[in-house]
Amino acid sequence: MLEFFAGHPKTRLLGSDTTGNRAPTVSVSTLDQTPAELAKKLADEKLGVGVGHFYAYRLIEALGINTDEGVLRASFVHYTTEEEVNRLIGALDQHL
């Protein structure tokens, strides 16, 4: 997931592109559409992601991101499977 976002020309990965010292949450800003527009497309495919500033308003603002739009956030837990991650990557690749 980190490689996908770090290398995609229509996203800006926030934070490190490696797993060391990173929580299993990935936030990105999107370039050609709002995070809400992309989240709607993913929801239509039964994939859930979050959208907003997630109470990090000042950080989002400092990063030059529109605080009204926020970022797209995907969260993972210990039972998230590789297949589920690949499904999300495939849907993102299709809709970005």
3D architecture notes:
The protein is of the alpha+beta class and 96 residues long. The protein has one domain (2-95): Aspartate Aminotransferase, domain 1, CATH 3.90.1150.10. It is 38% helix and 19% strand. It is built from 4 helices and 4 strands, in the order αββαβαβα. The protein starts with a helix and ends with a helix.
| Content of β-strand | 15-25%
Superfamily at the CATH H level? Aspartate Aminotransferase, domain 1
Main beta-sheet annotation: 4 strands, antiparallel
What order do the SSEs take from the amino end to the carboxyl end, as H and E? Answer: HEEHEHEH
Q: How many helical stretches?
A: 4
| Rg from alpha-carbon coordinates | 13 Å
Q: What value does the average pLDDT take?
A: 95
Shape, please? globular
Largest sheet, order of strands side by side? 1-2-4-3
Helix/strand/pairing class, anyone?
A: alpha+beta
* Uncertain residue segments: none
Instruction: Name the helicity range.
Output: 25-40%
